[in-house]
Amino acid sequence: MRECIELACKEGEGDLVYLLDDRCFLMKCVTTCDLLKAPHAESAAARLNWTGVQTLPPSNIDSTTASTYSKPTEKPSEKPTSTYTPAPRVKPGEKGPDNKIAKSAEHRLLQDLIYSESYNKEVRPALHEKDVVKVSFSLSLVQIVDVDEKAEILKVNVWTTQKWKDPFLQWDPDHYEGISQINVEPYLVWLPVIILYNNAAKGFAGGLEKYKTKVVIRSNGTITWFAATQFTSSCKQNIRFFPYDEQFCYLKFGSWTYSTKFLDMTTSQTKADMSSYIKNGEWEVIDVPVTENKLYYVCCPDPYADITFTIHMKRKVLYYIFNLIVPTTIIVTFILVGFCLPPITGERITLNITVLLTMTVFLNIASNTLPSTSDAIPLLGDYYLILMILVCFAILSTCIVLRYYYAGPTRMPERLRIIINEWIASFLFFVITRKPKGKGINQWCGKRTEQACYDCDETNNLMAAQSYIVQNENNTAEERIALIEIHPKNPVPRVNGIQGQHQRVPLGAASSPMKSKSEPAINLTSGPSGASEKRIRRRKVSIVPKRSNALNTVQNRVMDGLGVLTRRVKEDNERGEIIEEWEFAAIVLDRLFFVLYSLTFVIPLLVFFWTAPTPKTSLVEPQ
User: Fold this and answer.
1) Whether residue 415 sits in one domain with residue 289
2) Which of 7, 286, 501, 575 is positioned for an S-S bond with 491, CB 3.0–4.6 A?
3) Residue 80 lies in a domain
4) Residue 553 belongs to what H/E stretch?
5) Please, which residues have CB within 8 angstroms of residue 355's CB and are 6 or more apart in sequence?
6) Which residue has the higher pLDDT, 137 or 150?
7) How far apart are CA 621 and CA 257, in angstroms?
8) Rounded to 5, what percent of the chain is helix, strand, coil?
9) In terms of domains, do 425 and 515 share one?
10) What are phi and psi for residue 195, nearest 5 degrees?
11) What angle do CA 609, 615, 616 make, to 5 degrees?
12) In DSSP terms, which residues pair with 161 in a beta bridge?
């Protein structure tokens, strides 16, 4: 039978060959070739495939006879799996199926393989319907071009390798001047149509249109397709720990139309090749594991095979610390500076509102880089939110401090005064000076009772009252002179029902505080001359009858004015002490809020860095 097949190959014609009674018969099929219809009875038969002879035994021949020719031995070199190679279909100098005359062995090979009428690129490369085409797929990650968190898209540069075997594209290199490999355009041969399932580029072609390289065909029918391309895939972002987040982006490759019944995908990789990887400034690749999957889909009864590459990467956080965290922390410290400003400045609320607006700007910058999702709140968002809440409370605290500082003449409640001005002030290391219960003008006199203080004030303010009356131009000269000369040596009952005794102020003692515009007319300190003394004596004699009435009138006026002055001084001092109490309470609250916010602003920083996941070391990225 071998000799029969070799004879048929030399002839270069025919579709079927069979051996009957030691005679070799060569048949040429018009439409279809059926071995069972050949008149060979118990003889051996074979179908000729001119791109590589494949022997097929008929059903009525035993396996022992068929085994002698059904499996040709494979040579160690890259030759066809079949021992028998087809004879050249196109002779030198003749036009081939492409209507061209081949001038090289490679051109003749293309005419015999690709442009042959017997080859159809739409036909799956399988000799039998039940044969499954095995496609080996591998990937090399070259660069992470961009990770668009807003659109949840990953853009990478990769090198892909696809390898499968086409039994219809085999030849004997000896017939073509030793050519064992050719490169052809991918549209000339059958392709497995391996696409990216989670493709996010415009126009869902799955990335197949990106392959611009030629396929490599070897003489044994092995086809290898090397391609360098850029894929854009969807990548769901988990922003819970942003900017300390780790992302898992998937590249799922598989056939869109062939199920595992016709095409199966395999890979020899456990991790993607990273030998040519270019480092990214924002992301660090931790690992790229590879998995083979066979999944069922609702559309089809048979499973579909795919190869999934999982890109596990983490974000480099240094950029965000120096551009978002550090500036925000520095700006927030101005809230603490605001508590150190005196409340009277009036710029504290303006400072706090400015800090709040600045925080809003930084939050807006961070939100522009994150996807619009409600699945999780980023860690940086939590940090900004807490700081904004603290700033709002700082503004509220400033309003409380200012309200206490400008509380007004209303006396502070006793319990509130004890809590703030004594307990909290002592806790915050304020020096507390205890004051007597009866707060008022009595503290000036050093006496406890109001009656004694009133007497003391009346004595101390007598000269001031006299000066007031003497300087009053509405009084008559007689009243002024009488007032100046008042010097009672005996106790005089107080006017208007006021108990007690008073002594007149001597002229010498009263001369100093009574300097006024009336002094040139009435000289109180120097002794009078002879003429003037006589005039004064005559004048005194003339007003002696009126002195008694004038004395009573002046004393009544003095005591009335003294009472008014005393009450006014007392009210002013009480009002001043009330204001001092409120201002002291405002200062105590200011220091209290300063301490509280100093501790509170540290807590978000600790939480931010403490809750961040532990950074992992890259397993595949070149160090």
Assistant:
1) no
2) 501
3) no
4) helix 530-610
5) 331, 332, 334, 335, 391
6) 137
7) 35
8) 40, 20, 40
9) no
10) -125, 165
11) 170
12) 138, 226
pLDDT in tens, 361-387: 888 888 887 777 788 888 888 888 888
Residue 236 and residue 147: Cα distance in Å, rounded? Answer: 11
* CATH number of the domain where residue 218 is located: 2.70.170.10
Residues 159, 299, single domain; the answer is yes
Q: How much is the mean pLDDT over the chain?
A: 75
Secondary structure letter of residue 418 according to DSSP: I
Q: Which burial class, exposed, middle or buried, applies to 250 when counting CB atoms under 10 A from its CB (0-12, 13-18, 19+)?
A: middle
In a domain? residue 564? yes
Q: Are residues 563 and 417 in the same domain?
A: no
Structural domain contains residue 46: yes
pLDDT band at 502 (very low <50, low <70, confident <90, very high): very low
Residue pLDDT, tens place only, 269-317: 999 999 999 999 999 999 999 999 999 999 899 999 999 999 999 999 9
Across 77-85, average pLDDT: 41
Indicate whether 462 and 411 sit together in one domain.
Answer: no
Element holding 479 (H helix, E strand): helix 477-484
Specify whether 312 is located in the same domain as 359: no
**Residues 143, 227 within the same domain:** yes
pLDDT tens-digit map of 144-196: 999 998 889 999 999 999 999 999 999 989 888 899 999 999 999 999 989 99
> What φ, ψ does residue 292 adopt, rounded to 5°?
-100, 130
| Dist CA 358 CA 352 (whole Å) | 10
Q: Is the pLDDT of residue 492 over 50?
A: no
pTM over 0.85: no
- In which domain, by residue range, is 204 found? 105-316
CATH number at residue 599: 1.20.58.390
What amino acid is encoded at 596 in this protein? Answer: L
Query: Sign (positive/negative) of CA torsion 5, 7, 11, 12?
Result: positive
Q: Are 356 and 395 in contact (CB under 8 A)?
A: yes
* β-strands 153-165, 133-148 pairing: antiparallel
Residue 382 inside a domain? The answer is yes
Do residue 109 and residue 228 come from a single domain? yes
What is the C-alpha separation between 523 and 530, in angstroms, rounded? Answer: 14
Measured at the CA of 245, the angle between CA 602 and CA 252, to 5 degrees, comes to 175
SS3 45: strand
> Residue 46: exposed, middle, or buried by beta-carbon count in 10 A (0-12, 13-18, 19+)?
buried
Nearest to 288 by CA among 317, 311, 313, 264: 311
Q: Provide CB contacts within 8 A for 342, sequence distance 6+.
A: none
**Looking at 70, 93, 123, which one is the last position of a domain?**
70
SS3 252: strand
